[in-house]
Please model this.
Amino acid sequence: NVAQNCANEDRLRFFEWARTWRMVGADGVNEQMTCAGIFFERDGSYSFYDGKAAVQSLFDLVDHLVEWRKAVHVQPWMNPYQTAELVCQNQVIGYAGMLADSFEKVGPGNAFVFEVSMSALMALKPLEHHFEEPAKYQPVDLDISMLVPFTLTVADLEEALAQVDARIK
Model:
């Protein structure tokens, strides 16, 4: 669809909500409701973080906290450095990321793709909201700039910073 429509359009957004079937073991078939999509920009300005923000808004609508983890198994058409597994309550519910530059079937430009098992997501318990008393002292925001190796993820950095002091949020 992107390849057919990108001749006339500079930006495309395609979504699909459908049933999918996957082989489980030798004889079993697993049927799921799946939401998938692709965001395409001809000028190459669409980034992983633009796509992440758009997909994250879907999770916010259904009131689930989803963690974006570095993908362990990356499909050949995905960029291995810009692909994440979507994990909710320690269960992988999908993946999202940028298409590899070598995957030219969608046309010139770049694309962000995602696939989420909505059956798995909706079967999980939504977030419980708790009131937290405001802090006695006004919080101070501090930006930190650092060079980080590609092997570290944002989750690794957040975990390391949280272990420095309990007052760091």
Notes: The chain has four helices and six strands. The chain has a mean pLDDT of 84. Residues 48-61 form the longest helix (14 residues).
